[in-house]
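Handoff note, outgoing to incoming analyst
You'll be picking up this chain. Sequence as last confirmed:
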Amino acid sequence: MTYTLQGPGRLDATIDLPASKSISNRALIINALAGNEICPTNLSDCDDTRVIVAALSAMPDVIDIGAAGTAMRFLTALLAIGSGEHTITGTARMKQRPIATLVDALRYMGADIRYLGEEGFPPLRIKGRHLDGGRLEIAGNISSQYVSALLMIAPMLKNGLELKLTGEIASRPYIDLTLWTMSEYGAVAEWTDVDTIRVEPKPYSSRNYMIESDWSAASYWYEIMALSSFRDARIRLTGLHDGSRQGDSVAKYIFSLLGVKTVFEPSGNDGRSVVRLTHHRTKLPRLEYDFFSSPDLAQTFVVTCGMMGIPFHFHGLASLKIKETDRIEALKAEMRKLGIVLTSIDDTQLIWDGTRCEPTLEPIETYNDHRMALAFAPAAFVFPGLKIRNPEVVSKSYPRFWDDIRKAGFIINEE
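Most recent structure output, in case you need it:
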């Protein structure tokens, strides 16, 4: 399937954002460990969350999580301390995504985990057992989801967990989000040093819990506002919190440099907060930013800056190589179709110095990566008639995205 996009003739929309995938997935794992008595409300309806819900509901012998990397990591840790024996597997791409760091850490604590294919990669066969915990040291510069997976099971370990992270710590805000969600369920978990976290052996408590809207999803509406050319453009986004613990809430600060202003309005009668976006003309000569703590925003800002003609130098992108696709190479290939020539350094940096080529306007490939479709769609403001292949990939994190941008006035033709 291919979508052909035309930008709206005006922009004035109120968007009910999807619930945070990051919080939903953490709350589901923690809630299961708390006894699964009260399901969190306002859960994300994205693919990643659906597979966790399905796995926790049925706990089949073979758990297929598809392309959901978060589910693979979180459920691996959960199954290691659970009951019974299970196989966890996924798509062909999932079987290429490394998991050895997490498996080695769990095995060190006594977990019974076997590789069923290539060593270091899914699928896994896991036999649950009680683990003592104690002191553990792992690399902190690979994926914060390994760290989060270990932290969430830590209150259930006999001796709790003291986790020391070596090297530079990737995506620290996501670790902080995990600790915060754990504390919401009664866990005692905190940083005791710049590189060490201590979790006490204090079980979780069941509670009513409502999920905040997703700041990652919000970033695409900030992008739409940044790329619009309407003086009276208005976008209102529901359910976002000022002072949110979501790492991608940093988007509002970065977009302020690009002229998008954020105003938190008082909550309405339904108690949901509203963010109002407005665009103020500005011309930043160049943007340099380190996305080490918020790598999922990189695609958004690569496309935004390219379409606004703002040269950039983005650092901290090492984790992009092991996402749903190699996002470094995908961005280089697809931005060239729009006339933007990117260069990379050591697969950790992306640079645009203003070099352009003739746009081919070939359809944008999404590489089975939801964020490619989400980030490139707003470029229809600059290139009316922009085509995006396999647009259904947005279901991984934002299933209603195409309905929402239609609501905002975008015209979408399906081929």
